[in-house]
Amino acid sequence: MCGLFGIWGDEAAADKTYLGLFAQQHRGQESAGLATTDGHRLQTHRGMGLLPEALPPEALRRLKNRAAIGHVRYSTTGSSNLANAQPLVVNCRGGEVAVAHNGNLVNSRALRDEMEARGSIFQTTTDSELVLHLMAHRNALQGDEAGLDACLARLEGAWSLLILMPGRLVGVRDPHGFRPLVLGRTESGARVLASETCALDQVGAALVREVEPGEVVTLDDGGLRSRRYAPATPRRCLFEHVYFARPDSVLFGDPVHEVRKLLGRRLAREHPVAADAVIAIPDSGNSAALGYSLESGIPLEVGFMRNHYVGRTFIQPSPDERSRSVDLKLNVIESSVQGKRVVVVDDSIIRGNTSRRRVARLRAAGAREVHMRISCPPTVSPCHYGIDFTSTTELIASTRSVEAIARVIGVDSLGYLSLEGMRSCVGGPQGSYCTACWTREYPVAVPQDLDRHALEARMSGRRPD
Amino acid sequence: MCGLFGIWGDEAAADKTYLGLFAQQHRGQESAGLATTDGHRLQTHRGMGLLPEALPPEALRRLKNRAAIGHVRYSTTGSSNLANAQPLVVNCRGGEVAVAHNGNLVNSRALRDEMEARGSIFQTTTDSELVLHLMAHRNALQGDEAGLDACLARLEGAWSLLILMPGRLVGVRDPHGFRPLVLGRTESGARVLASETCALDQVGAALVREVEPGEVVTLDDGGLRSRRYAPATPRRCLFEHVYFARPDSVLFGDPVHEVRKLLGRRLAREHPVAADAVIAIPDSGNSAALGYSLESGIPLEVGFMRNHYVGRTFIQPSPDERSRSVDLKLNVIESSVQGKRVVVVDDSIIRGNTSRRRVARLRAAGAREVHMRISCPPTVSPCHYGIDFTSTTELIASTRSVEAIARVIGVDSLGYLSLEGMRSCVGGPQGSYCTACWTREYPVAVPQDLDRHALEARMSGRRPD
Amino acid sequence: MCGLFGIWGDEAAADKTYLGLFAQQHRGQESAGLATTDGHRLQTHRGMGLLPEALPPEALRRLKNRAAIGHVRYSTTGSSNLANAQPLVVNCRGGEVAVAHNGNLVNSRALRDEMEARGSIFQTTTDSELVLHLMAHRNALQGDEAGLDACLARLEGAWSLLILMPGRLVGVRDPHGFRPLVLGRTESGARVLASETCALDQVGAALVREVEPGEVVTLDDGGLRSRRYAPATPRRCLFEHVYFARPDSVLFGDPVHEVRKLLGRRLAREHPVAADAVIAIPDSGNSAALGYSLESGIPLEVGFMRNHYVGRTFIQPSPDERSRSVDLKLNVIESSVQGKRVVVVDDSIIRGNTSRRRVARLRAAGAREVHMRISCPPTVSPCHYGIDFTSTTELIASTRSVEAIARVIGVDSLGYLSLEGMRSCVGGPQGSYCTACWTREYPVAVPQDLDRHALEARMSGRRPD
Amino acid sequence: MCGLFGIWGDEAAADKTYLGLFAQQHRGQESAGLATTDGHRLQTHRGMGLLPEALPPEALRRLKNRAAIGHVRYSTTGSSNLANAQPLVVNCRGGEVAVAHNGNLVNSRALRDEMEARGSIFQTTTDSELVLHLMAHRNALQGDEAGLDACLARLEGAWSLLILMPGRLVGVRDPHGFRPLVLGRTESGARVLASETCALDQVGAALVREVEPGEVVTLDDGGLRSRRYAPATPRRCLFEHVYFARPDSVLFGDPVHEVRKLLGRRLAREHPVAADAVIAIPDSGNSAALGYSLESGIPLEVGFMRNHYVGRTFIQPSPDERSRSVDLKLNVIESSVQGKRVVVVDDSIIRGNTSRRRVARLRAAGAREVHMRISCPPTVSPCHYGIDFTSTTELIASTRSVEAIARVIGVDSLGYLSLEGMRSCVGGPQGSYCTACWTREYPVAVPQDLDRHALEARMSGRRPD
Prior knowledge:
4 copies of one chain form a homotetramer. By secondary structure, chain A is of the alpha+beta class. Helix content of chain A is about 30%, strand content about 25%. In chain A, a hairpin with a 2-residue loop joins β7 and β8 (about 170-175).
């Protein structure tokens, strides 16, 4: 869960990267960073928090240059520190190099052990540092394409990478293309790389195409060069469409909002119900609720009011306030639900606690019936390719039937979209999407002991800054 | 534009006031403050910024007491400083007293001159300080009801006031009731006063009733006492319904979201148009757009994606980025509007610049026709009773016809809701609403030279903290 | 314990006031403030902490003007808040006015009660606000000299005042002249007022003379005017010479360092002892130790090394570290005292705890004998005129004989300078110094219940910012 | 210019290390850091600024453990950043390891090139990282003493090192012993390593002995082990005695304050002069001035008053204030010098600007004659072993005779202590001190192009945090 942005050949590279990251802030709120180059050296700034805090104006001014890469990072609290912020910038035989990474390597432990045995020292727990060690060791950073490809061949898992050196910017996507990466072009001709197309919109760039799974794209003053370092075997992340990406992005070729409306329409066909109003859980259920309403003919209604001031800086009031089922983020609009049979549409149920509380509040506000509809199948297994939700044991659907879940959250009926139903709403050939979190079928083998925190456990005490 | 909250008789008074203000953060983001009492003394904390910054946890812990009042304040930058934050707390003959005020006195200059001539010194430019001087001079703070009423009789304009003393909490609403003030009750029986009912929801309190125009409510350990210090001549602010209040509040007896849907429905009848989609300007046009869609049968669509990370802390990128018509807050969802005739619903047009830019972006995204519908009449005149929008000369409708405005903002058609249409959507007898910003008919005479910054101009250099 | 600085007729008035306060930072470290005028309005900035924090560069830039007054304030923690920082600036009948005050009024409670009975409201606990109320009520701020003098006649206690209005700067010293106030002149002819002459040195101004006890000095574009509003009955604070003032100041006509050397010389004559080295407690005992050494012929030695990084920002290590008699501020230089008979010179003993600990450390470092010499008589009674040391009960000398004190702090001998001895080291006619803290003879009657915190007790819960 | 502290076997290891660094804050004010271990993992915190800011209380609480090393760092602004703060902590084959370093390697460029050629990546410009790479590559961190010794054999220049691993703490001093490192023991038996003995005093530890040049000391739960990895060829830094160390430390076996008094006495014999007063430049000249006075019989006087509030946080007033020869740090005490012939004693003259300004101020205050005496020979050449003063071209003595310097700074006479004179004041055999900054005789060959900023120039754009 990270966002990438890179640009080559624009005098406002730092500002545009800031804007491109800003449009992708939903992909990571913990830290942000920027590396730029004037063609000779790299300059960098990284900071904790949202962009305005992490990259203050004076940093942007200092980093004014013609090329840049940037990164926003999400992480659980445990591993939250500045040392792990990206891009990581180092000096090595090939000169200075910066790397930003979105995804998760499943063989990082093995690679790390191997590098340590060779005498490497590790200062962070990020995959970015691992990639840099590999490339430095192979001397893959001086234009040696074979060397770089050999390094990439060592990686297993999910990676969209941006690599900045004084003379060029390289973008790489793993052969499965788990995480998105698109190529754009500004009006003045500068090339742009970004995780999502909403970042292109923000900087006034047009979408050119996806970077293909298994493709290496090199941007420099001579323009764009592309090559394939591995055959593409696409397993794009379908959960990006269901939940993670912004509705105004075009993802893997399909507009996200349209896909979600289709999910809602299909959901209405698979799980119809007699009701007076369709309401969304804002904002995750907005597009699917609209689709459900359009397909079913049941009027859309605004059932929950979102408090826009709830943010990461919010300071919790005393514990006994919290236990009073006070919901700081969403308040029910009583006039919208009183005396009505309502269909509540959301994108997923993780642990079920939040859903249960919200259903209770709808009933307290006078809803006569509450029917919940989810725009994907039950989530039963964790993601090992870069989406960080809870562990298997905490997933309510990993051990319970749909009926049992309906009882836990207190609804009159509960319907999940079928796998085929979901799959029919997106394009691409059969099998080109990863659906492991719903099916437990992992396209890339995962080591028995893999744990997102495995590396961190070894360095757990360290919080270098 | 301020929000008030007060509570008597709850051990968690400070925390509940924080939550009540939090639900009303939309009414003021510049500063916030809290005054509490243990029955003997007052304690207070005020700070700049949003609540988490203005009232940090350690302040709340220090202010733990059985009764409290709080305030969130909006102000233009010019007069922004901590000295003007509320509640204001002073020592006087009657002991300690704290005051929080929502509204705007139109005779503050005259009263101030009168008090200064008597030898009073003024440390702020707030109406709150003026009210305190009046009350201290009349010795109106020791339970002398006649004295307090005589002070209130001196005030002209709009005021909802909360006054906290060690022994009681007093709530007052002006005879016209311009600004809202409601009375609630928690499950454990504590009385609550708030500007909006969404604050009651947030603390788990039920709405009892409005404080009436011209009413004084006194809360103490003996319960609730009420008296009328002036006959009620209601002129409630209709713009609160159209724009300012939260959709989940019940305002002046009507649910805001329902009123706004009615405004949208009426707008669809007054200004119908053949179109493919109805889209809202989020979030101000959301409820009215839903009403327009329901009445017209034209499907609702999500045309704009809002970036939730745009906040007051956002640091602007370089000027030439801004001139590139980059909209940091709203991005068009191209798939929703491409090739379509769209009806765009909003609550008002102030200067027209933002509307023009957004219409242009809809057309750039491929909208075939753009029809704008506004859920109130043209705004032609400033508010002198507490809503701070721009000066007359900047209001696009103060000097232009509807046709001229349509040309300026570049729409195919433009329709404003009629005054009667708007009026028909809310309850209450004819004439009980203030509509001065649309009609120039001011219920309370305004001095020729009145200017929100008049007092401040006299003290302009001062920024005491 | 405060420092004042004012200047009229210098384009760099704000910067010079900053420098003048900086030289007087020892007189107050809690908060600082500045008020300036361009001849029409006042501008002000106040902040907590030392000068660089309280008055940041952007504040100085904003306050660039031709005239200014400034203030540094010391206070105990209890009453520490921004609202009490000075100068206080208000609006009243006479226009805008700023006041800064050094000293302590003994009749503030009575005056305050009187003003409150007239209907005044008080927002701070400072004497400055009281003075402003008096002057506003008497309308003494429009050039009415009789009115101002009548106000000053109401004050009892100690006050050096600076009053800034758009058209003039007024300096006042109480008839007893407890606190210092001097008049200087810069090379370009601008007039300067300051508590100590070291502030004149810092801004390149020459000392002209003391402002006399009972004198009012008015600076404006017409130059300097002086008048006497009360006959002078000087009772200058002798403790300023002994301890509080900077050694490089000329105070009440005498150079402080020279006075302190004389105190040390006299001490050597009154309390001679056979010893190997004279050492000072840095920095309070430095000058007197030098005098003792010169008079006695016993060589001066450096016995204690001061850690210059111990400041107000120091964060205490864990409690059990503190109990280990670790002295963060002073370390003994073992080679200076080992095997020696040492005379330790300091300016005073307040509670005795610190002295006892330091004597113990000298012995631990191998000192053979430790003789303590104090350059004033035993401190037996609190100051009510502006110096804030501990209450009577905590003063070790208020209830103990010199022999008993010597036993408590563990010295081989202890000698205090006699009153006559001390008095002989400064100029001026007999009786022109206040010596109340050594003699309990208070020149101005003190109300029975006077307590520095009396007013604050009434407003104790308030911490407005 | 750095300070080290380490401790093994004390429950309050973090607090004691904080105190030990606090006593050595004069050795580095730019950043500070701490690494501790519980026997299994390392924990670390590093921050910019003085200790209270760099290591806040919550960090100390989090780092509570039984063993720790700490570091304070000085650096020029150019290379100032958090990434370069120490201790540096990494993961490698040997597990976790932290390193803190005082000194300067002269072959760091060559070693770095060699490591990069092997594929290592560098994230900082510190010698500490280089040492870690060497040790990781040699696998020297798992108790392999031969491996560690082989690494140390590769280093050239000055290094006092502390290395912390979960199971032990290693202290190393280079064979020349340029920088100090001492071994101490607390009352409860815990072993302590520190740069200066004043740090031992601060934590209540007794000095055991110096760590010898060429010695490796290992502390673990089994106690202390020592071995020699290279023959000792001592070249201790004499400038530490003259200027850098604290007067209350015992350095290389001699008490610093006593050495400085001897320097002053010898200076009085080498350069006598008829005068009325000896004054020191505080605080650098204090001890030598005392010695000069004792030897010459000319009375010591306090000529300069130091403003203790001048610190690194001081914000400079406007430029034209500065040009007015205002000295923020030192003010002349006029009464001490007026009409007198004064001898001014200081430890060194670097560029001469400050000396010239101070001499001018003494004359302006009425000094009849000004004679300057310096307690070491003329400083003619830079230090390459860890003391960072200016480049050769800026050293006033590198191109000027003593007479020419006297004219530049405007004194009546100028005397520098002779090399032999200086050398006679410290112990140890002939040739056991490094005197390169006075003699240009560098004990360790320095590469032609050596420049403290060489490495940094290659990474100059980087400011990773």
